[in-house]
Structures are given as C-alpha cells and as structure tokens.
Write a structure and sequence with these properties.
Blueprint lengths: L1 E8 L3 H12 L1 H8 L1 E9 L3 H8 L4 E3 L2 H6 L5 E4 L6 H11 L3 E4 L2 H18 L3 E2 L10 H8 L5 E7 L2 H13 L3 H10 L8 H4 L2 H15 L9 E2 L7 H9 L2 E12 L2 E12 L11 E8 L3 E8 L3 H18 L30 E11 L4 H11 L4 E7 L7 E8 L2 E2 H13 L3 E10 L5
Parallel strand pairs: 1-2, 1-4, 2-3, 4-5, 5-6, 8-10, 10-17
Antiparallel strand pairs: 7-9, 7-11, 9-10, 11-12, 13-15, 13-16, 13-17, 14-15
C-alpha cells in the first residue's frame, strides 16, 4: 500500500484532535483512500505535551521549521494560527515541494492570493476545508458539489461564539454584557473576544467563501464588518415579536454592480431553518441558480469536528498527490486564468430591508413626520410597532420594518429623523434578509 507521510505543526486543540482521528481511524481512512497516512513528525512549543499525546511514536520538535524542512514529510499540516510565522512556514513548505493542509482562515483571507500563486507554480496542493465552519464540508460543497451552478449568494452563521451569545440573549433575556462573561467561562469566547464579537473572524471566513463562490481573489480588506457588542436586548425582543431572529451573518452576493461582502447582525424570518440554529453551532446557506437554496449545518469548532475536515483534506491529498495538476480541483474552484477581479460594493451601495428603532416624544404628528421622511426618499414601510410609554414616561419606542432600499438612502433618512425635535437619541438600524430566493 502507498504511504503518505505527514508533519503536524501545532498540537493544540485542533492538532491534537487531528492526531487522534488519524490514529483512531487509520484503518477506515486507508480503506477509503488506498493510502496509509502516517504522522512522522509533530512540532509544538510544549514538547512534553506533544510527547505525551503521541506516546513517543513520532519525532517531536519545538521548531516548526524542522517539519517544513524534513525530507521525509510529504504533507505539512499547519495548525499554528496567526498570519506571520504561519505564512513563512507555509511558503517555505511550498518552496520545498510539500503539499499543505491548513485550518487557518486569517492566513488565507489575508495572504491566500500569494500562497495559492506560489502553490500553483510549485505544482502542490493547498487544502483548507477546516478554515471555514469547522467540520461542515462547505468548501467542498462550493468547489465541487455545486460546481454546475452559478452561485448567486452565500449567507452563514460562521462564528459560534457570537451565535452562542445571541442565543443566550434571546432565550434568557440577558444583555450582551451579562452573557460575554459566561461565554468566556465556558470556553466559547477568548479572554479578548474582539475578533469574534466584532465580526472579524466571520469576515475572514466569508472572504474565503466569497472567493470560491464567485471565482475572485481574496478581498478581506474590502469586507464590511460590524459586530454584536452594541446590540440591545430590546431589539432582540422586538424582532421576536415581529417574527424575526437576530443572527450575526456573513453575507456575500453577486449583483450587476459588483459583489457584496459584509458581516453584521441581521434580522431573519423565524420560519427559516437558519434562524433556528442556536448555541455555538454554525450554518451556511448557499443559493445556486440550478439547485436553489441549500443549507449546511454542524459544529463550527472543536477538536474532532475541525479535525474531521483536516483529515478529509489529507485524504484528498492522498488521492490526488500524484495526479496531474490539471486533474485537481482548483484552489478557488475556478481555473487560475479564469479568476476575475470583481469589484466589492461599498456598504453604502448595498440594497437591504431594514429594522429601525427610535425613541420619540409621545405626541400627535411625530409618527407622521417620520413616515414622511421615509416616503420622501422612496422608502416604503412593511410593518410598524409602537410601544406606549409607561405611566411616568413621555416618550415611546417606535419600531419600523422597511422594504428594500439603498443603504445610503436609509442613512440619509435616519439623519433627518434624528434631527427631528421629537426624536430622542440615535436611531437603531439593523439590516434584514429573507434568505429565500
């Protein structure tokens, strides 16, 4: 039986899970691929931990460069994270003629164009299923399963931390500040949760999905990113009353004017399956012109769910390592000479429906003034909810759902509404998506 020798860089949560799955399921994997996949070397700063986990059966080093330069290693698995040292190691591995498997979404979102170009010239495979949505095979679905389709849009819950927080806020009536500490205690959120709660992690993943869906370079620097830290409990409650759930979505759409690439809190009709994805789970909806909307659901993180995707990539490498380059699936699904530098729309040019919440004096004519401002900018109202003030209050909360309009028109209308003497404070704006067609 043919063999494939693997070196793993980083034996933390995912690296440890990968080693466990590879060794536990070795027989099943070789039956499927006809190749025996052997881990011959691991690198981790905690050498004693690595030796304990591997049981002394493989070479262990504290220097990842030794894995990259080891002539007996056919495939380098990069599970270090970050995008400085990992970039150097991956490019060096490629230069040494080694295939690469990585779960590093930040590395690919920021440096994927350079890495794929180098890999193409070297004739090696770079596989990255685990970089997006953990154990959900969304990369393979986009690159292969939906290959007959012209992808129209992709929308997903691709960050488990924020989905856990929003679920707790909705189900228990808690505020963001109430939940973030619990998320950290349970290990869903880092000590510094900025990358998760501000939408940066989701934007890394969305950048990869968008590039594959539409055959374009990675454009993370042009992604619009808005997190959940300013989301109020009141908005989650009002959305529920109106038949919606709020989720942090990554959304990318192909339009006649360019590609939308945006991450932000979004109202989704509660009847949609994706609106009912709770806790730390992930889900991605892909709309193809032939197949229609398709949903992919599962664990977006964790040792063995993510390891499932890493090992699946290793199995693909085992099958295709000796194949002609032309027979392999291209890195971004489209042939390299067909990748198109499509423009990314600024958020001001995006069309969406909107949820608006404002606080205004409870007196005649206020609502008429607000609706006139919207009408003057051709923004039509779909639904409205007015909460009467309590006995000692003189102000009321007004919630308005609009039909689709340009973001810049909505922002201009909001500026006028905030300038009204009856309006108190800022208007809350949250985008809405039907995710149906």
């Amino acid at each position: 039986m043919k063999t494939l020798n693997v070196g793993i860089m980083g034996l933390g949560t995912v690296g440890g899970g990968t080693y466990t799955v590879l060794t536990r399921n070795a027989s099943e994997i070789s039956r499927r691929t006809g190749v025996q996949i052997n881990v011959v070397m691991v690198a981790d700063r905690n050498i004693e931990h690595a030796k304990t986990m591997t049981g002394g059966g493989v070479a262990v080093t504290g220097d990842a460069l030794e894995v990259v330069n080891n002539p007996n290693v056919d495939v380098v698995v990069e599970l270090i994270g970050g995008y400085t040292l990992s970039k150097e190691l991956v490019l060096k591995a490629i230069a040494n003629g080694k295939h690469v498997v990585t779960a590093n979404k930040a590395l690919l979102a920021l440096h994927g164009n350079e890495i794929f170009s180098a890999a193409q010239k070297a004739g090696v495979i770079v596989a990255f299923e685990a970089a997006v949505a953990g154990g959900i095979p969304i990369i393979k679905a986009l690159r292969e399963g939906l290959g007959a389709n012209k992808i129209e849009w992709v929308a997903g819950i691709i960050n488990g931390t924020t989905n856990f927080i929003l679920t707790e806020m909705r189900e228990k009536g808690l505020t963001y500040q109430d939940v973030i500490g619990e998320a950290q205690r349970l290990g869903y959120a880092e000590a510094d949760p900025t990358f998760d709660v501000e939408g940066i992690d989701a934007a890394h993943k969305l950048t990869i999905l968008s590039a594959i869906a539409f055959g374009m370079p990675m454009k993370f620097d042009q992604a619009y990113t808005e997190g959940i830290t300013k989301l109020a409990q009141a908005d989650i409650q009002y959305a529920e009353e109106l038949g919606y759930r709020i989720k942090l979505l990554g959304i990318t759409k192909r339009t006649v004017n360019g590609v939308e690439l945006r991450v932000h809190p979004t109202l989704i009709p509660e009847k949609r399956l994706v609106a009912n994805v709770n806790g730390a789970m992930n889900a991605v909806v892909v709309k193809g012109d032939a197949v229609g909307p398709t949903l992919y659901y599962g664990a977006g993180a964790g040792a063995e769910p993510t390891a499932s995707a890493v090992v699946a990539d290793l199995m693909d490498v085992a099958r295709l390592a000796n194949a002609n380059v032309e027979q392999r699936v291209p890195y971004l699904a489209f042939q390299p000479n067909s990748v198109a530098d499509l423009p990314i729309l600024p958020i001001s040019e995006v069309e969406s429906a909107y949820y608006l919440r404002l606080r205004a004096s409870d007196k005649p004519g206020v609502l008429a003034g607000v609706t006139k401002i919207l009408a003057d900018r051709n923004i039509s109202i779909d639904a409205m909810l007015q909460k009467e003030p309590s006995d000692h209050e003189t102000e009321a909360n007004i919630v308005i759902l609009t039909h689709i309009t340009l973001e810049k028109n909505m922002d201009a209308a909001i500026a006028e509404i905030e300038a009204l003497s009856a309006t108190v404070g800022k208007v809350t704006k949250i985008r809405m998506e039907e995710l149906a067609k």
